[in-house]
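Example record used in the benchmark description.
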Amino acid sequence: MSKRTRVVVLFGGRNTEHEVSCKSAASVVQHLDRSRYEVVPIRITKAGHWLVGPVTEESDGDPGTLVALTPEPAVPGSVAETLARALEAMRDADVVLPILHGPYGEDGTVQSVLELAGVPYMGSGVLASAVSMDKDFTKRVLASRGVPVAPGAVLDGADDELSAQDRERLGLPVFVKPSRGGSSVGVTRVDDWAQLPAAVALARQSDTKVLVEAAVTGREIDMGVLELPDGTLRTSPPLEIKVGEEHGWFDYEAKYEAGITEFVVPDDLDPRLTERLSAVALEVFRELGCAGLLRVDFFLPEVDGEVVPTINEVNTIPGLTSMSQVPRMWRAVGIDYPELLDIFVETARARARGPVPAVLP
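Model output (structure tokens):
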């Protein structure tokens, strides 16, 4: 029997998306084929400690089961000491799957550790991760290349306030969000300017940098970009997010509680529009310097009778439970969840071996 590929599943994280990461990681661990992979879970606690679990042979997809494999000792040692032990465990890994969401996971910090350690890993590198995590920087890069983005304003300092000119430019409603956050944590829809101070205060609990964006009216569509081991890029079918009218918008509750949101894939978009979305998604992937995978979130407003695909945000490590948007999109074209994980692993290993061929337009 040939040697199994040693895969470290890195999950948890020092942020408000810790539980979301645990759910994604539990699904990944459950669906990695044990005849091919030796799986080692490593959990980053909310306090930042790196806890190495035993090699897992079975998992029922329950996040609690996965967390139980990486228990916190009574005296875990310093963060640096636990990181050193985790790096030792990763030394012989063939690949690391960083199933991490939010700051200290998806923003280039963990990627820099893996780069310094010389460990192959899934997904985008340090710079692409950092830029893509910051919604403000993402919009600046894409807007400079002519890609439409939602109008917005940035509040950087603790005393920054939205100017009268920006209020007039953006209009109501607006969405107030942490610039470097995800899963709609700390996001508020503001329908009256009197609500703005409380919304900004909530966003600042997650990030010192706050983004105030104009609401964009139009269908909400996601598209996935997948890098194959030979460097080829593929785009998924479009997926439409339909939130129940009584709920209003795609917030944390709508994302993670059953029955509120319907995901429709493949969608009934005009084929020409689907081609445009695909082209824009590939452009976004290249402009941000991404690798491995990406989810691109669009709004489809109409301007002078024409649909203008507008970027809402991007995710370099999107939700990866078996029922999340990205697995749903690829399942629609015959790539089931275990095969998708195979592609993540093999693409990461191929990138670590050397440069991949240039992607043809």
